[in-house]
Amino acid sequence: MNAIDIHRKLEENAGLLIFGILFVSAIGGLVQILPSIFQETVEPTAETRPYTAAELLGRDIYIREGCSTCHSQQVRPLLAEVIRYEAPAHAGESVYDRPFLWGSKRTGPDLSRVGEKYTDEWQRIHLVNPRAVVPKSIMPAYPWLERRKANSGNDVHLRMKALQRLGHPYTDEEITRAAADVAGMTELDAIVAYLQSLKIDTSVDPSEGGH
Amino acid sequence: MPFEFWSWWVAILTLTSLFGLGWVTYSAYFSPDRRAKADEEGAQSDTVWDQNLREGGRPAPIWWFWLLLSLLVASVVYLMLYPGLGVFQGALNWSSDHRLANRLMAYEMTFGPKREAVLVKNYSELQADEDLMKIAERLFGEHCAACHGLDARGQANRFPNLTDSEWIWGGTIGDIDKTIREGRTANMAGWADSFSDDELNLMTDLVLEMSRGESVEELPIKPLYDASCAACHEADGTGNPLLGGPDLTNDIHLYGSDRASIKYTIAQGRNGEMPAFKTLLDNTEIKLLVAWITKNRK
Q1: CATH of the domain spanning B121-296
Q2: Which residues in chain B touch residue A200, judged by CB atoms under 8 angstroms apart?
Q3: Is B275 close to A208, i.e. CB distance below 8 A?
Q4: pLDDT grade, residue A211 (50/70/90)?
Q5: Are residues A62 and A162 in the same domain?
Q6: Could you tell me the pTM of the whole model?
Q7: CB pair distance less than 8 Å for A2 and B31
Q8: Which residue segment(s) compose the domain that A82 sits in?
Q9: Which residue of chain B comes nearest to A25, CA vs CA?
Q10: Do B273 and A82 touch (CB under 8 A)?
Q11: Distance separating alpha carbons of residues A53 and A175, to the nearest angstrom
Q12: pLDDT tens sequence across B80-138
């Protein structure tokens, strides 16, 4: 028996061929994906907490507006990035990100450590019209964020409930309170709250790894 | 399932695949019937489709074999040196963390002494050093320009001009160092609840007159100014850098010099905030920035 005989059998039998192709393509998944499904090794880092109602709404607006097509949220363990953005990304920082927003395109800067880099006021001016503070910016303006209510669908508690079911440690009290917490907030308020929450976890030793 | 199980799972699947690939490659060239066909003119495949359809049956050129073989050997060498087989770290004990730590160390060795050298110089020496001032300008571009503008002239009616000789929080080296290190939060509460609209208008007139350099002593609203505003802006309007109350006797107005902006400030208050940079910047960087800003001043 040699590989050529098997090959001949596969070539002459379409069903077997299909099975063979599926089997070979599955090997990558068996090695890469299957073990990580069965291992709960990623623990949140000490300062990682679930998003507040306002931040969660802001995050959803961030996704809706496609900010991640221009902004990544992962600092790679490379010298230049660590000097510019501080500590490299740690897997535990993303446990409450569903889906994660690591991204792969950097037209603008990485945002995973932008929290508290600027004041709320700057963030508001910049989002409504980036050219007001960065004259040569190519980032689009998002003036409508200021005019729309963040919780207009009145569903923030439902979003939190869904995440709670997936294991995010929201208390029932936080969920009942959510709508009141974000009452009157504009989308701009919510997205600024989200951006300001993107902070470095100072409890992680950068040399410890886990990314 | 335990961690070790998955480690072995990965390792065995990887090695089995490698072995399988080697075997397929070998058979395709060196199994007996292949070898026989290698020299045969017009050799045809053994596989027959549709009763009489056959392909040319000579093995692929031998240099493909060498190519595939070298790739297989490279994979084996890679898996011996680098992490890949389950928990096996590889002979080099390589990790991205180690690499980063080493590069950071090398970076520190190159630039650490240069940073130290900046710290022992005095401000006029720093200002005379063009290379250092270029570095300071770049630092400003990276950390400060988004608010104060690339040319440090301020912008958006929110972020003050740092190139003039007017300082809200004081213009000495010590003041500016403190501003950058600790940040500053201006705090002026609005007066809309305590003043009538008439009083707001009269107070706005007073501020406008002050900024034109006219005397306001005779104005009927002046006693109300003395009672309400002098604590932070001084009775003569020259301001109080300790509280960040700006000088009202010049025509520089952070939030706009028009009547409406000034009235809005008096009615609603303002809370300008300069963030603290002591965690983001080190002493060298702060010193360079202070030197650059005070040099910049005309």
Answers
A1: 1.10.760.10
A2: none
A3: no
A4: very low
A5: yes
A6: 0.89
A7: yes
A8: 53-197
A9: B17
A10: no
A11: 8
A12: 999 989 889 999 999 988 999 999 999 999 999 999 999 999 999 999 999 999 999 99
